[in-house]
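Action item from last meeting closed. Structure (356 res):
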C-alpha cells in the first residue's frame, strides 16, 4: 500500500509491514515499529523512526535524520544530507553529506564526493567511491573497492582496505592503515602514522612526520621525517632528503634517492648504494624472474569486500554532527605519489637476485 501526504510539521505513524508513505513538506516526523516500510521525503528537516526500512529523498538540498538500525537511504539528487543514529546503515548518494549521531554507529556509503562526519567515538564508515572525506576520530574507515579515494580528517583512526590502488589521505595524527598496494599521503607536519601491509607507497610533503612501516616492501617519498621500519621489511625504497631511518632488520636492502639520509646512524646506509638509481634496470631483471611474477600475482589478489563493523543498539539522539563540509580530497596539499606497482617490481627483482 502506498500513500502521499502534503503537510508541514506533521507526525505520522505507520502500523503495518510493507507500507509506503511519501511526505511532501518540511519538519515532518514518521514513526513505525514495523518492517519493510518505505518512507519518501520531499522537504527538509525530516525525521524517520524505523528499522529494517528504506528512506528516499526526492529533491536537491534536502535533509533527514534516520533513527533505527539496518536502514537503507537513497538519493539520486545533489547536496542532500542524511543523519543516522543506528548501526548497519547503508546510504546510496553522491555529492552529499552523511552524519553519524551516536557512539558505535556504522554506515556503508556507495557514491562519489560524499562527506561523512561524526563527533562521536568508535564509529565505522565504509566507502565505495572516489573523492570521499571522513571527519572522524577514534573510529574506523573501510574502503570497499579498487581505486577508491578518501581523505580522513581527525586523530586516532584506523583505515582498512583489502583492495588495491586505493588512495588514502590523512589530516591528523596517530593513524593506522592496514592495506597493500595502496597510496598513502600525509597532509600535515608532525603527524604519526603506522602502515601495515605490503607494497604501499607512503608520501609526505611536510616535515617532522613519523612513519612506521611493516611489510616486506616499503616505498616512502618524504624529507625531514622519521621513518621506522619493522623487522619484516626486506626492501626499502626512499626518495627524499635528511630523513632519519631506524631499521629493525639488519638484512634489509636499500635503494635511496636523495642526500643527507641517516640510516641507523650510518650515512651512507648499509646495503645498497645511497645514490640515484635507475628503476628500469630492476624492471629488466624482474621481467626475467618467474619467482617475482608469482609474488606479484599473490600480492595483488583481491580479498573481498570489507565488512562494516559495530553492532550497537540505536542511540536516541537526532543531533547533527558538526564538521567542516568544505574540506575535500582536492583541497589537500599536492603530493607526488610513488607508484607501488613500480616499486614492487623493482623490489621483487632485487629480492630474487639476492636469493640467487
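Sequence:
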Amino acid at each position: 500500500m502506498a500513500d502521499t501526504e502534503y503537510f508541514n510539521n506533521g507526525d505520522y505513524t505507520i502500523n503495518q509491514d510493507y507500507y509506503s508513505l511519501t511526505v511532501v513538506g518540511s519538519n515532518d516526523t514518521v514513526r513505525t515499529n514495523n518492517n519493510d516500510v518505505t518512507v519518501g521525503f520531499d522537504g527538509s528537516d525530516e525525521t524517520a523512526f524505523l528499522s529494517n526500512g528504506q528512506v528516499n529523498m526526492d529533491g536537491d538540498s534536502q535533509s533527514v535524520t534516520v533513527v533505527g538500525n539496518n536502514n537503507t537511504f537513497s538519493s539520486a539528487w545533489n547536496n542532500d544530507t542524511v543523519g543516522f543514529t543506528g548501526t548497519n546503515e547503508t546510504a546510496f548518494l553522491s555529492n552529499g553529506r552523511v552524519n553519524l549521531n551516536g557512539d558505535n554507529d556504522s554506515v556503508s556509503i556507495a557514491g562519489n564526493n560524499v562527506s561523512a562526519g561524526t563527533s562521536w567515538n568508535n564509529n565505522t564508515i565504509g566507502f565505495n567511491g572516489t573523492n570521499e572525506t571522513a571527519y572522524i576520530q577514534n573510529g574506523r574507515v573501510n574502503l570497499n573497492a579498487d581505486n577508491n579515494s578518501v581523505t580522513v580528517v581527525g586523530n586516532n583512526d584506523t583505515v582498512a582496505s583489502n583492495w588495491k590502488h586505493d588512495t588514502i589521505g590523512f589530516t591528523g595524527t596517530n593513524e593506522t592503515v592496514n592495506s597493500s598496494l595502496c597510496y598513502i599521503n600525509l597532509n600535515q607536519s608532525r603527524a604519526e602514522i603506522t602502515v601495515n601491509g605490503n607494497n604501499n607507497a607512503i608520501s609526505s610533503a611536510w616535515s617532522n612526520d613519523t612513519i612506521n612501516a611493516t611489510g616486506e616492501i616499503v616505498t616512502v617519498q618524504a624529507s625531514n621525517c622519521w621513518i621506522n621500519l619493522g623487522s619484516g621489511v626486506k626492501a626499502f625504497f626512499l626518495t627524499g632528503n635528511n630523513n632519519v631511518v631506524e631499521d629493525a632488520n639488519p638484512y634489509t636492502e636499500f635503494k635511496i634517492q636523495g642526500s643527507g639520509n641517516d640510516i641507523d646512524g650510518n650515512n651512507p646506509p648499509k646495503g645498497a648504494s645511497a645514490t640515484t638509481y635507475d628503476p628500469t634496470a630492476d624492471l629488466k631483471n624482474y621481467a626475467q624472474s618467474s619467482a617475482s611474477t608469482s609474488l606479484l600475482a599473490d600480492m595483488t589478489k583481491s580479498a573481498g569486500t570489507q565488512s562494516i563493523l559495530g553492532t550497537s543498539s540505536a542511540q536516541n539522539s537526532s543531533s547533527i554532527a558538526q564538521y567542516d563540509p568544505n574540506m575535500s580530497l582536492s583541497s589537500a596539499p599536492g603530493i607526488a605519489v610513488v607508484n607501488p606497482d613500480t616499486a614492487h617490481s623493482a623490489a621483487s627483482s632485487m629480492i630474487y637476485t639476492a636469493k640467487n
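Note appended to the action item: Residues 158 and 176 are 5 Å apart (CA to CA).
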